[in-house]
Structures are given as structure tokens and as C-alpha cells.
Amino acid sequence: xxxxxxxxxxxxxxxxxxxxxxxxxxxxxxxxxxxxxxxxxxxxxxxxxxxxxxxxxxxxxxxxxxxxxxxxxxxxxxxxxxxxxxxxxxxxxxxxxxxxxxxxxxxxxxxxxxxxxxxxxxxxxxxxxxxxxxxxxxxxxxxxxxxxxxxxxxxxxxxxxxxxxxxxxxxxxxxxxxxxxxxxxxxx
Length: 188
Fold this sequence. Notes:
- The structure is a single chain.
- The chain is α/β, with parallel strands linked by helices.
- It contains six helices and seven strands.
- It has helices at 26-30, 46-64, 77-87, 100-105, 146-160, 171-176, and strands at residues 15-17, 23-25, 35-40, 68-73, 93-95, 121-126, 130-136.
- A hairpin with a 5-residue loop joins strand 1 (15-17) and strand 2 (23-25).
- The longest helix is centred in the first third of the chain and has 19 residues, at 46-64.
């Protein structure tokens, strides 16, 4: 992984086609929410399928917690769509068959010349594509469990949501005065 891709840094704002062929930019997909970003080997990898099935099990919590998930793989559109449908995922799968991200981030998995995948990584991003945590999933146990993700997302959400603790001094008074800044949905 490139040396500047570390916690606290900003992840590059890539734009790639999704499983349906529509160009999608990471920052637009993220909006103002925390995000799980999966850099995937692709449809051929049984470890990726298991990781994505685990994320599908977490999906109901992710949706109600104002969190996003995006998967990026070196798959072409058809394979990405089949992988997404095969695991019953509802989030975007971005396609990078030209391996732009693999080269840019220096994550070519040189041990698999047949598929030429990326070394799989999972990142938890705070709003603004700020990197909170990075997991290297070359070995399956390097990938985050759903509990790891819950802990990371709790930490990110606590930090970025001004109304995390409604008993914090001054919040009730602001609310009662009609000042809704700092309350969901956040205004800029």
C-alpha cells in the first residue's frame, strides 16, 4: 500500500463505473456518512464471497446507522454484477478492470499472475474520505470481522456526530431555542 494511505489521511476520490455501468465518485457515494470501503480481489475469490456475505448480514445495521459500503474490484461489469447479486449485496460494486487503483495504490497481488487482483483491503472512512482504519486481507484473518467494523464505526460516528450524546451540555438548550445545527440531518 502506498505510504501516504494511512489513518488520518484522505483516501483518493476515485471515479469508476458501478455494476450497472454508471460512473460513480467515492465522495458522492459517501456523502456525509462514515463508509466501509472494500478493495476486493473479485468474483473468483471464495474469501471475498465470504467477507461480502458477512457484510450482507451486517447490512441492516449499516443502513439504519447512516453508513455506506462500497466495493471496488478488478472485475468487469458483468462479473461485478454477478458477484453482487450472488451474495445479495445492495451497495455499489465499482469496476476497475484496467487496474487503475491497483497501480495507483501499489497493491498488485503479485502472487496471483492468473487473475492479477489487488491485495484485498478493507478501510473504514470518516466523512470526507478520511481514513480511520485499514485492514490488509491477503490472509482471511486479516479482514475485519463485523464486530471490528462495529467498533470502528462506533468510534468514527462518536467523533463526527455532534449529537452523539444528547445529554452533552448545551444540546438540549440549543434544541429548545430552535437552533438545530449539530442535530441530524446536519446542516452546513
